[in-house]
User: What shape does this take?
Amino acid sequence: MKTVRTGHWLITTGRMVWPVDSSEMRTGRRRFLQASLILSAGAVSGCIGEGDGGANGSRSTDSTSNANESYTVEMVPVGEVEFESVPETWYSGRRNGDWADMGLALGQVDGWIPGPLPSMLYYDDLGFDLLSRFPDARWVNEQANDPERIHEVDPDVILLDPVNLRIRWDWSAQAIEDVERTVGPFFAAMVYRYREELGYEPPTMYEAFEKLSMVFKERERYDAIKGIHDEMLETVKSRLPPEDERPRLGYLDDGTNPQQGEFELAAFGGRGSENKQYHELGPTNAFDIEGGGSEGWVDYEGLLDADPEMIIFQDGLMFGWEFVERNGTELSFNAAAFQERFVTPIENHPIGGQLTAIEENQVYPGGIGEQGPVTNLYNTELLGRQLYPDEFGAFDPEAPLSPSDDEELFDREELYDIIAGE
Assistant: This one.
């Protein structure tokens, strides 16, 4: 039985703090004592200043080495959150696949309350049969971020950014307060894409991953995965061709409709984890656009004016597209379905057929933008093979995540063992 607190938020300078009263604290295996939320101007009242130490002014402290006693983790924008014990269950909602990836990478599979996981194909390739265990972890779930859903699943910690819930998902301040009071604390930030309207400087994906490892007390797993990442990046950067030899890439958003001649441009220069592999592998944007996310539309004439040497469709490997097929509990990428939807209509168009990318057979499915550490390892390797096949091996659309052993940029077995705790 839960003891639900009653009361009101104390509004202090730039900070919203729950008044701590030990006689009213919730009982049970979870309890957060204090939380701070940045509130965006015009959408939410107040803001939070950055603390001392750590990335983006965030810090983490353990009040004791005893796992049964409380400890504190601080991160922008949620501020300082104190946990009575390590959360046993967690929920990451919709359009938040990077945080789901982080939680799973830290070995928290047993406590995952399944929601949409766009990188399901990646975990399947790694050897985790998540789909048979969590058949409801589908991408399309319109209610996944509703307050009612969070009350229903009742997690110990909610890996959703409350500021983003206010601005993008139209939550009220009262809904945020009710969930924190009766369910548990929020612990997340918008690492996917920088949005000025959120009103705060987000951590990088790996900074957020480190903070989450402190919440779950899984520092060793974090360090091990970060080590794989750093070693892979060192290898990749040492093998990149000179900038003037890198391809001009046309990056198209998944809203593109070649049948109608509508091509949604996507930029890969913006801040945020969605473009991490593009920053590190350094292609040139054929459309000469900056920033991140959707950057407008062109027709076939506009596409030919830019004439990219290569075209990549964002999120082409996302679980939920018709290209990622489900046969029982097994997943596979249907290259023929991707070809039929995105490539054949361009080939058959009198202008589209003149594109260099079409003539050179350089049209590919892109990696998943909502990437945590596991997804990013795959995405970096995938993009390396698409951009620089002479250096990293040719991309095989029939096995997009499975290069030959001598072309792998990270050890799958080692990564599996870290996550599985073996």
